[in-house]
């Protein structure tokens, strides 16, 4: 099936597609899109071209292990809260941190961005659960959040299409040698340019999410008819 048949156009169409449309695709379409995946080679971590410091930051979460499923409370099937993260092993000279979360297996030409946070203080050592704003959650005060693929400065909960297989969500943390002046809600391109100039080291943590066939149920309503009597 052609990707052009599925891709909406325009700002608001993009919001609808990335925010809710994937989870509502029929499973037959999920199967048809099996071979269409952005790929891990296209995430920021692998396209930045770092020669030193790559994967030297230890990034982890108490909510899930590396390459293990994300708990439903952090996906569109649950509360949709951003997961807790913690890090160690920052290099000398680290002035700030940047977090980028991407879906490496989205049926799109490039990975979908699920979260961007810039200007994190290295001394914090962690990001608490629900720190990034999301639906019905204001997030932590003072956090500088960038735009996700839904054009919102928020956490976009994972919502892979039924039948498309496991999706890998790449939590990528970067140590910077300064504090770049980002816009109010920077997007991926702006952040990528800053990382090319200032990144010292990086860390990667993968969480997965999958919706098996039939996981999205469509309620069927019987047609109205005359009431039985007697």
Automatic annotation (TrEMBL):
- Extract the SUPFAM superfamilies matched here: PEBP-like (SSF49777)
The residue stretches assigned to a coiled coil in this entry are none
Q: Does the keyword Protease apply?
A: no
Q: Per the UniProt record, which residue ranges are transmembrane?
A: none
Keywords, in A-Z order: Protein kinase inhibitor
One Pfam family hit? PBP
Source species of the chain: Variovorax paradoxus
Name assigned to this protein: Raf kinase inhibitor-like YbhB/YbcL family protein
Q: Which GO terms describe its molecular function?
A: protein kinase inhibitor activity
UniProt-listed InterPro entries: PEBP (IPR008914), PEBP-like_sf (IPR036610), YbhB_YbcL/LppC-like (IPR005247)
């Amino acid at each position: 099936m052609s990707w052009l048949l599925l891709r909406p156009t325009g700002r608001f169409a993009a919001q609808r597609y990335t925010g809710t449309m994937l989870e509502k695709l029929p499973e037959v379409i999920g199967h048809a899109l099996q071979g269409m995946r952005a790929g891990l080679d296209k995430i920021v971590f692998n396209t930045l071209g770092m020669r030193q410091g790559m994967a030297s930051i230890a990034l982890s979460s108490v909510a899930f292990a590396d390459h293990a499923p994300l708990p439903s409370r952090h996906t569109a099937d649950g509360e949709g809260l951003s997961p807790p993260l913690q890090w160690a092993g920052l290099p000398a000279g680290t002035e700030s941190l940047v977090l980028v979360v991407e879906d490496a297996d989205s049926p799109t030409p490039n990975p979908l961005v699920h979260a961007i946070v810039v200007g994190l203080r290295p001394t914090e050592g962690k990001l608490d659960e629900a720190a990034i704003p999301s639906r019905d959650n204001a997030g932590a005060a003072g956090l500088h959040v960038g735009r996700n693929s839904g054009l919102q400065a928020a956490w976009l909960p994972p919502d892979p299409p039924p039948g498309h297989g496991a999706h890998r969500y790449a939590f990528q943390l970067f140590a910077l040698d300064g504090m770049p002046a980002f816009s109010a809600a920077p997007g991926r391109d702006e952040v990528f340019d800053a990382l090319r100039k200032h990144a010292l080291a990086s860390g990667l943590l993968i969480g997965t999410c999958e919706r098996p066939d039939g996981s999205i149920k469509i309620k069927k309503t019987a047609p109205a008819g005359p009431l039985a009597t007697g």
